[in-house]
Amino acid sequence: MTEDVGTQVGDRLVGRVLDGRYRVGSRVAKGGMATVYEALDMRLDRIIALKVMHLGMGDDAEFGRRFVAEARAAAKLSHPNVVAVFDQGTDHDTLFLAMEYVPGRTLRDVIRQQSPLPPARALDLLAPVLSALSAAHDAGIVHRDIKPENVLISNDGTVKVADFGLARAVTTTGNTATQGLLMGTVSYLAPELVTDGRADARSDVYSSGILLYELLTGSKPHTGDTPIQVAYAHVHADVPPPSQLVPGIPPYVDALVQRATARDRDLRPADARVFSRQVHRVRSAIEEGLPDDPELTGDLTVPIQQMRQDNGYDDGYSRGSAYVEHVEQPPRNDTIVVPYEPAQSLLRPAGATRQHQPAEPLTRQPQQQRRGRGFIALIGVLALAIGVGTAAWFYGVHRYTSTPDLLRITAADAKTKAGESGLTTVLANQDYSEDVAKGEVMATNPEPGARIRKEGEVELTVSKGPERYRVPQLKGLDEDAARRALESIKLNVGQVSQAYSETVPTGRVIIFSPKFDSVMKPGESVNLAISKGKKPIAVPNMTGKPVREATRTLKKAGFTVTRTDQTNETIPQGQVISQTPSNGTLFAKDKVTLVVSKGPALRKVPNVRSKKLVDAQKILTEAGFLVKVEKAPFNLGLNLVAGQSPAANQMAKPGTTVTVTVL
After folding, report:
1. Locate the Protein kinase domain: which residues (predicted)?
2. pLDDT digits (tens, 9 = 90+) for 1-11
3. Structural domains of the chain, ranges and CATH numbers in brackets
4. Which end of the chain is more exposed for a tag (fewer CB within 10 A), N or C?
């Protein structure tokens, strides 16, 4: 996918936050199915690539299901040459993938700027593509959309393949193979996708072969005015040798391209790993500076030649003309349909027939002439046998050795051991192993005992040890985010329980087990406890209770108690007049307010000094006080009030006893 990204005007997604996590930035590329944006993962504070499916593509439930399934399959591919898939999600009507962001350029840019490339450089660029496809094919995933736009080259030179599984998700929405061809990738589609719509690992090999042809020549092998004409060329015409356009390309490179792009899928390498081995052999021959290697060329071309002899068709190139000129073009209609043809007719150009020429009559030659020719023929046969034997020895036994057993030793030891046989090693891949210790070699290419050129290169796959993952910090995440975090490291969610929490909001993880940073195997489960929020607490009614009892009871229930005091003529001092709230439920640390009685209000003590005792008692009683009478030590019997306590005009509570002293 390519696009001029100079303008983002009118893009509805730029600046939007998807799934509450991904802030969409500038648009990077746009294709027929999706648009890719640079985005910020706000949770992990990193730049990612966000692939957003076009509106309407996600409306079909079956498409959405397939898209999710394929995204999960792609996420399982852990390989240095595969663009990593971090997350998949839906935000309302927006279906998206969060992927590794690879700043740099695409292989299309390299072809446009540098092609035709030298064979060594072309193979070096193809090798990591095949390494990525090998991992996919081992996992049962067929890419279906290998093209220069889907091969990314980072600024440090790392080659990564993108869009694993997406083409498969599209073709399962009900589109026919023909409809798929009209989406811009027809130049790289294998013939079987045109004839029956079925693809396997060999279809990716075909597309990779077309990719190699384009790297070597700077052009595509088949062209046409319409996509369907190109599709017909894939079915009816062999890919020509790249040396027809770029003289000087070794025959074994031609053979490699034509073997990978054989129209009969049974003649291609079985998968990307087999094709990668053939690329490795051809690359070794180039390193040796061989202009030709008859044995290698023969190994690659004999099956194709045999098939052509068995089926009796001519590819058109032996006559020195481009076959596509002879392809019968279908009529142009609004709806284009690719007709299915039997296998034999697909392998033979329209109108092509095998030409059988009658043998010329034999004439008798004189006996002497026959004897002379026989002697010359014998000498020729002997010379040919000697030449063939010498060539076989030189190109077969002399130049090859056996790959040593480098398994279960460290990469450094493997390098030393390979060097003893005149070989070099290269670290091609790393993978997990339950059996092979970390840092030791778990596989080689070629395999131990296989034939390899002297001074050749052995690719090492080194063990990363057992595959283990540390449990991430999940506390505080919502359940969906916790599940995604575990799935991203191949762990499962086990039992999910719910519990009240006074600190963790509803729907978020309170606790999990095993605990944070525990080491686990892929596929093991982590149990989650999800918060139901704060626990509701019933509020007891403490109205009329002594304030100490009320306070103690409410605090024990978990509430915060506040208090206000006020006078009350009927409620005794220290008792609860009212409570807010007085019923219902609250949560821990919520506030309950008590109104506590201070008793009746204070009153002013009347002045009864010099009053007669009878009058003083009446005045004090009517004021709400009690009266106590005491006689003065020098009592004269006058019954006049000489003193009072509390004193006149002091404030006292109703019911207070006022002592009067009489004379």
Report:
1. 22-283
2. 444 434 444 57
3. 17-100 (3.30.200.20), 104-315+330-347 (1.10.510.10), 400-463 (3.30.10.20), 470-531 (3.30.10.20), 536-597 (3.30.10.20), 603-662 (3.30.10.20)
4. C
